[in-house]
Amino acid sequence: MEYVVLGWPSDGPTLRLDYRRFAYAGKFVMSNTGKAVVRDGSSDTEEFDTDVRAALAFNADRTESDTLWYRYVTVRSDAKGEGLGPRLAAFVAPRAAERGYDRLRIAVNNPFAYEAMYKAGFEWTGRETGLAELVLERPADASEDVLATADTATYQDGLDRYRERDLGEPEASFLADRVGADPPAAVTAHRLS
Known about the structure:
Blueprint: E1 2-7, E2 34-39, E3 52-60, E4 67-75, H1 84-98, E5 103-108, H2 111-119, E6 123-128, E7 134-139, H3 144-147, H4 152-163, H5 171-177
Parallel strand pairs: 4-5
Antiparallel strand pairs: 1-2, 2-3, 3-4, 5-7, 6-7
């Protein structure tokens, strides 16, 4: 597998993801966000980019030029559970730091994405968007030591926000399994294979 940044927002990269296999596939056709992917090297067809296993779209914050927002992270349906989303998010982080970004943010709308982004080194900020998404943040150039110090109380407070909502299965079981748990271990960019 290969992790690669296809381009930054100014480059206007696009992806043709199969909407039957990827959530948010239509968001990756837009050229106003940068894109990064995990791909397996198989050939493309004329209709879709078939070698992509996971994709991430990102763009600069409109008011804070040192902040990069991860807008969409999607994993192909047959590759979910392999940790590709967090690893791809961790892969992009040092590359964003090289481009001058100090901080990375993402707004997540479900506990599975919350957990995945914790694995990528993000931590809940205590803020929510107007769409009830939890805003998570991490330093772009975070060291392994910094990533290993996620606060359990903050992690649980974010999970409690989801617990307050009327969620069905499998979200409710997922949240029940994590009562009192420490944050998941963070993946780091240098451990990617």
